[in-house]
Q: What sequence folds into this?
């Protein structure tokens, strides 16, 4: 499969070969990612203009686009240069004016000769009671009426490209559509009443009305599905190539797990038990595990992770748990150490801070197999870190980790199983888009003993009451987080906001009561400030959002979020999850600056009404769109030209099961539908997938 199939060549020719596109226009289009006729065809119109022929402009709802047959009555050139050149025209009921600025008399007399009939189409507005059409977009002879589309598509433009140019080039591009065999499952296609591919492309560029532009229009759904299908095929191929790679069979009797469970004061939730079983069963198979453990804030992912690590240890191997930050790695260590001891398992930590002899000693113990479970930061990626027999790698907090890092980690232990844990509940459609190559376990129950957090909205004008409330709580021995807003993009201004709030709270509550953590601090100072708060030496921790991930201080029962309306929903939900971990009833105060916008209100009231992270993420998706939700830069989300992940979410799940089924039936894509699917992958520029199929 060295090159693109010949049938697709016309779609990937140079843009300059299209009618009306010169080098300059081609350059302008390339800035928007349009580099071939194929890209142009996937640039769909976003609205349309009704150009149906009317009898008269009388009764039209001005200002609006009107198409009408007229007779030219008189030319009135401008007296001063560059002024308005007016032409009086009559339709079947009334007289109005065509207006041209910088109009040239000889040209206009040729195009609109007095006494002749023409069809004109353009925007009509009233000026001082006179109806005027300024610069008609179309002027044609009556016998050419059928060349005018009744509904003209309007394309998204970039500077230097006009609608006329787009329409002309598009018309040419449409003549190059090859007849391709269909890659969609015939039952699926019939059930949805979807057109063939070429028919769908033709149809989206010749909409008959505004309905044809909606995401649910059949031709648009079909093209969106193609895009999602190509993406899911790529992920399914990645999954297949991972599975082909021999994994290691890790079997257990469950003895170590039972020791740990016996020492716990509570029983795991049903969701936790289900996930533990799914993971152990995956680890007992010869294929490599590639599973995502998705759980809401406080759903108890860490316990599930430990149970998985114990499978590796009981089978005679080692496990590694990777956290995104030093603070989190230390917390995992503290949380897991006592449990590991119950099972007689050796747990150790490795971070960038380990230096010299101490580091060498740890690495030697690891290579000998004396350390069973290693907890660490990305420092475990370094070249000199070698395991005796790595069976399982767990990555905590996926969104800092792309597919590339997932693969790198897998290479540390050639056949090691991989489990990714994320505390970011993502709506199903996005989870499939981002982690479609993985199997998913979801923790959707809260462990017993987690108390609900009372959430309240309060205006910044009442900040003095909040501080008074805080003083009382601190006197009672409670602890609180105070999260400062991320003011601008620049981190220095966050810093100023955090330091100002820190000073004000110290003045109000006392010097040694308040600590500060922000992104600009050296890690050692950050850890020291955190450690003081964890130990209860400080009662209030002022922070920028560095605390959103994973920090565990059971005594902290108050969370104040300043200017909550400028945070994302998911982020607010993560922050709130830092309280409600101990015995005390917890509160989260969302401070906002009035007046609240409509979206601000919806965001904060959603949060007040529910603690269900998955529900919150669905609302977030509706409000913000897919790209913003995960932060496009690190989202690993593909850029879809047609598919709309918010409005066509259900198609993603269908595409995933279809892609997986197609590969199960035809792993090398050499059958009739498989060959059609290869065309789809080329058409959608899925180079990654094409590489995975290799020669076939």
A:
């Amino acid at each position: 499969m060295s090159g693109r199939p010949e049938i697709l060549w016309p779609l990937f020719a140079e843009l300059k070969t299209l009618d009306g596109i010169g080098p300059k226009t081609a350059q302008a289009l390339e800035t928007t990612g349009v580099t071939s006729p194929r890209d142009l065809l996937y640039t769909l119109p976003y609205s349309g203009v009704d150009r149906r022929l009317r009898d008269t402009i009388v009764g039209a709802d001005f200002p609006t686009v009107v198409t009408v047959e007229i007779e030219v009555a008189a030319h009135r050139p401008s007296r001063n240069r560059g002024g308005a050149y007016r032409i009086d025209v009559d339709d079947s009921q009334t007289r109005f004016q065509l207006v041209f600025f910088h109009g040239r008399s000889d040209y206009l007399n040729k195009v609109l000769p007095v006494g002749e009939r023409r069809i004109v189409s353009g925007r009509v507005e009233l000026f001082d009671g006179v109806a005027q059409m300024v610069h008609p977009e179309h002027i044609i002879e009556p016998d050419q009426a059928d060349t005018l589309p009744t509904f003209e598509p309007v394309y998204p433009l970039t500077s230097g490209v006009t609608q006329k140019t787009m329409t002309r080039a598009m018309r040419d591009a449409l003549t190059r559509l090859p007849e391709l065999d269909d890659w969609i499952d015939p039952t699926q296609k019939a059930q949805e009443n979807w057109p063939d591919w070429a028919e769908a492309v033709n149809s989206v560029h010749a909409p008959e009305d505004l309905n044809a532009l909606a995401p649910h229009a059949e031709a648009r759904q079909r093209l969106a599905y193609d895009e999602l299908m190509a993406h899911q095929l790529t992920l399914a191929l990645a999954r297949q190539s991972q599975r082909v790679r021999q994994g290691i069979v890790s079997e257990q009797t469950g003895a170590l797990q039972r020791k740990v469970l016996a020492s716990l004061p509570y029983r795991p939730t049903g969701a936790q038990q289900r996930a533990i079983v799914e993971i152990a069963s995956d680890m007992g198979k010869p294929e490599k595990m590639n599973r995502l453990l998705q759980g809401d804030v406080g759903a108890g992912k860490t316990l599930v992770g430990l149970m998985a690590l114990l499978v590796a240890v009981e089978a005679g191997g080692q496990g590694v748990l990777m956290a995104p930050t030093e603070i989190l790695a230390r917390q995992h260590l503290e949380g897991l150490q006592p449990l590991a001891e119950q099972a007689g398992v050796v747990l150790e930590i490795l971070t960038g801070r380990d230096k010299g002899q101490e580091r060498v000693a740890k690495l030697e113990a690891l290579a000998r197999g004396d350390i069973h479970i290693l907890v660490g930061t990305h420092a475990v990626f370094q070249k000199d870190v070698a395991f005796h027999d790595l069976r399982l790698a767990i990555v905590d907090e996926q969104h800092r980790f792309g597919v590339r890092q997932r693969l790198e980690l897998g290479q540390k232990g050639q056949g090691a199983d991989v489990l990714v844990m994320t505390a970011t509940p993502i709506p199903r459609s996005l989870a499939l888009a981002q982690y479609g190559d993985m199997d998913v376990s979801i923790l959707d129950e809260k462990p017993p003993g987690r108390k609900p957090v009372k959430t309240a909205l309060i205006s910044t004008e009442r900040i003095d009451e909040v501080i008074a409330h805080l003083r009382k709580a601190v006197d009672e021995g409670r602890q609180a987080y105070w999260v400062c807003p991320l003011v601008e993009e620049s981190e220095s201004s966050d810093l100023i906001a955090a330091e100002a709030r820190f000073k004000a709270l110290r003045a109000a509550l006392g010097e040694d009561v308040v600590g500060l953590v922000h992104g600009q601090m050296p890690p050692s100072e950050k850890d020291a400030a955190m450690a003081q708060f964890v130990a209860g030496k400080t009662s209030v921790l002022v922070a920028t959002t560095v605390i959103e991930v994973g920090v565990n201080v059971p005594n902290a029962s108050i969370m104040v979020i300043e200017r909550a309306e400028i945070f994302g929903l998911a982020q607010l939900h993560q922050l709130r999850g830092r309280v409600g971990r101990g015995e005390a009833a917890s509160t989260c105060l969302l401070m906002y600056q009035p007046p609240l916008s409509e979206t601000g209100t919806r965001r904060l009231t959603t949060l007040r009404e529910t603690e269900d992270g998955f529900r919150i993420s669905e609302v977030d998706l509706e409000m913000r769109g897919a790209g913003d939700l995960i932060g496009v830069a690190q989202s690993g989300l593909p850029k879809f030209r047609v598919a709309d992940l918010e409005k066509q979410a259900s198609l993603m799940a269908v595409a995933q099961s279809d892609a997986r089924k197609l590969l199960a039936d035809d792993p090398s894509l050499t059958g009739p539908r498989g060959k059609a699917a290869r065309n789809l992958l080329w058409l959608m520029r899925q180079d990654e997938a094409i590489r995975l199929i290799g020669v076939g």
Summary: The longest helix spans residues 218-244. Residues 438 and 484 are 36 Å apart (CA to CA).
